Amino acid sequence: MKKAQNTSCPRVDIGGQAVMEGVMMKAPRAIAVSVRRPDNTIVTKLTPYTPITEKHKWMGLPIIRGVVNFVHMLTMGMNTLQQSTDMLGILDEEPTKFEKWLAKKLGKGIDKIVMGVAVVLAILLSLGLFFVIPELVARGLKAIIPNQNWLVNLLSGIVRILILIGYILFCCAVPDVRRTFQYHGAEHKTVYCNENDLPLTPENAQTFSTLHPRCGTSFLLIVFVISIVLFTLVGYQGTNYFLRLGSRLLLLPLVAGISYEVLKGLAHAKGKVVEMLRWPGMQMQRLTTKEPTPEMLEVAIVSMNVALHGLPKGCETTPEGYTIITDYRVTDPNYAPAQEADSLKEKAEEAKEAVKEELADDAR
Fold first, then answer.
1. Cα–Cα distance, 110 to 129 (Å, whole number)
2. pLDDT in tens, 16-38
């Protein structure tokens, strides 16, 4: 089956994030996180959301909004990952004596401590991989090809991109990460299905591509390309390693702001030139998205429906307060189980009549 492709996205953007065994969807006024537990039920949580740009108008200005969104997505992304792990209910074992002692000394829950350590380590790893190492390469290149700043910045930028690709390929080898990449594909397919005003069903969503122009993977590639340009034009070009590294870090907010505007522009524009500019980022997504199963699409659909329409009525909740979804269709406000039962009954009656007619024909 040929997969449907969207050439542009509507102005009201609804995006999401793959999490462990689930999907987060972010609508203009709500955030929904849904995961599939080991018992095959789906649990979902709805959190009301007010854009920070409504509280502070200046944060919605071009370039600035990109920086704000970048910081917001980082913090929300880490919180969502922790939340999805809690929702799975697979880490409820009793803390060790050391964990209890550490929590008592720091005055925080062990989960918050672990998340804090993970965030610090992630930041240090990112700085090391994408700034320290490329700048060490740039330092060596400047000794080999002096007075060629544009070439040094280009080559160090290519090193950043190669490190990113290598890191993603390494992650693909981890089974749990690969499943998360499948949920990433489910998120994209469901977003496409909603943007095309089709009923949110696994069958409809499956016809779309896993590659979406507003994906964070494309954003990362744009960031690396924009950084090459800005580091060449306004970054420190001398031989002092620490000044070079510091200038790159200081320019990072500006790089993020410009990259955000480029991503939004390419996502909404049309034309052959736009498709060509989008192509590298879309191809990069082949590494971070995989074909999902119908069950994964159901989870993504639950998050989309809950984010758009709220929690369905009459569903049970877990002791933690998560809503239990036994059938993804109940999250659709237009779903009428009584009508479906009547339809199935009619089909059964029609099948019986058909059998009777065949038997009568055989008897004659």
1. 28
2. 999 999 999 999 889 999 999 99
